[in-house]
């Protein structure tokens, strides 16, 4: 294999496919990228057996061929080079990365050891990224990162008529979102890994994609996201997703409406004093506003007051401040609405504006008086 390529193109390609590299590879080859040169283009492949990425970039191919090369090393080396063009030349033992001033020899693996990628069908659903991007980001942060319960590391994804429904939960919080796709599509119900959805959105931003193709490979239990010059493969998660509708309260006894930015700042300030007490912040909902309190005996205590419009009973409810900050960092509206049936009932957070269908639930913490 011998290829001449613009550094800009190679660096962009590596930034994309490196997202599929395995950090703790089960097999040594999973720390490698597979490079294939043919038809005046360079294809780059990566996989960690959960997520696989193929990216194609133009190149001048003087000799076709393929090579498996350590991905992190190649990415770091290429990014350090000051040049416009890079020559790649592979032998059975090395990949020579050459500029007019620099030569790097990288040891290579056996390309035949690299896991094969399934060939997707050309039939797929097209989803508008401008409509689904924010909905995905507002959902995935509530998914679990605990591989001990794999079903909770996914996002339940349902397409019905012209609507996309997303929901995720880690057992302590729940995010739900609904998107009007603008066109009727074939029905679908799958559970997609939250991390794969996040990487798809990140890659789409890099290449400025406006829509994504969505295809299920039935016999492989995989999904392919198609973006310009890019295919992203991810497994489907098997299992029964929790019936999250059961935990969503149907009414409230206490309600407040507050400016999101004011609430966000108050939570950040109060959290400084909550880190040594299991991250717990208490919120007292009173007639004229909210009191946020935190107390760590070895550190001190703090109380913050913010104005809010309140309805119903005055209560005190406690939350893990990290869950509140995650919510507020992803909240879509300027005004936040909170509803609760009591101190130990799920706290419901939603936007004031009806244009947002986002709904988030956080389970409160039981604390001693």
UniProtKB/TrEMBL annotation:
Keyword Endoplasmic reticulum among record annotations: no
PANTHER family reported in the protein's UniProt record: BETA SLIDING CLAMP, DNA POLYMERASE III SUBUNIT BETA
Residue intervals of the DNA polymerase III beta sliding clamp N-terminal domain: 1-116
Lineage: Bacteria, Candidatus Gottesmaniibacteriota
Entries under CDD domains matching the protein: beta_clamp
Entries under SMART domains matching the protein: POL3Bc
Protein name per UniProt: Beta sliding clamp
Chief place where the protein resides: cytoplasm
Pfam families registered for this protein in UniProt: DNA_pol3_beta, DNA_pol3_beta_2, DNA_pol3_beta_3
Single Gene Ontology MF annotation: DNA-directed DNA polymerase activity
Provenance organism: Candidatus Gottesmanbacteria bacterium RIFCSPHIGHO2_02_FULL_39_14
Residues in DNA polymerase III beta sliding clamp central domain copies: 131-243
Keyword Cell division: no
Domain DNA polymerase III beta sliding clamp C-terminal: 246-366
């Amino acid at each position: 294999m011998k290829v001449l390529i613009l550094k800009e193109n190679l660096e962009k390609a590596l930034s994309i496919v490196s997202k599929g590299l395995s950090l703790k590879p089960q097999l040594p080859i999973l720390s490698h990228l597979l490079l294939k040169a043919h038809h005046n283009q360079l294809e780059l492949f990566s996989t960690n057996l959960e997520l696989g990425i193929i990216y194609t970039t133009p190149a001048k191919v003087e000799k076709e061929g393929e090579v498996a090369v350590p991905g992190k090393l190649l990415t770091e080396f290429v990014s350090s080079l000051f040049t416009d063009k890079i020559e790649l030349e592979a032998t059975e033992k090395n990949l020579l990365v050459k500029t007019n001033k620099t030569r790097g020899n990288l040891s290579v693996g056996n390309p035949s050891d690299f896991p094969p990628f399934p060939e997707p069908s050309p039939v797929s659903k097209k989803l508008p990224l401008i409509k689904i991007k924010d909905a995905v980001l507002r959902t995935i942060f509530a998914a679990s990162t605990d591989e001990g319960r794999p079903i909770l590391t996914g996002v339940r994804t349902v397409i019905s008529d012209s609507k996309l429904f997303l929901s995720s939960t880690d057992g302590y919080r729940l995010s739900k979102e609904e998107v009007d796709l603008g066109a009727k599509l074939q029905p679908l119900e799958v559970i997609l890994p939250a991390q794969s959805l996040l990487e798809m959105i990140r890659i789409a931003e890099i290449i400025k994609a406006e829509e994504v193709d969505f295809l299920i490979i039935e016999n492989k239990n995989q999904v392919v996201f198609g973006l310009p010059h890019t295919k992203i493969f991810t497994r489907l998660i098997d299992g029964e997703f929790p019936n999250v509708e059961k935990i969503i309260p149907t009414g409230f006894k206490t309600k407040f409406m507050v400016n999101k930015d004011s609430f966000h700042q108050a939570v950040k300030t109060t959290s400084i004093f909550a880190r040594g007490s299991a991250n717990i912040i208490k919120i007292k909902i009173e007639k004229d506003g909210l009191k946020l309190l935190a107390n760590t005996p070895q550190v001190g205590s703090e109380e913050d007051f913010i104005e809010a419009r309140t309805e119903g009973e005055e209560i005190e409810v406690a939350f893990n401040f990290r869950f509140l900050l995650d919510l507020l960092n992803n909240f879509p509206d300027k005004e936040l609405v909170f509803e609760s049936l009591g101190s130990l009932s799920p706290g419901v957070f939603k936007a004031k504006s009806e244009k947002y269908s986002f709904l988030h639930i956080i389970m409160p913490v039981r604390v001693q008086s």
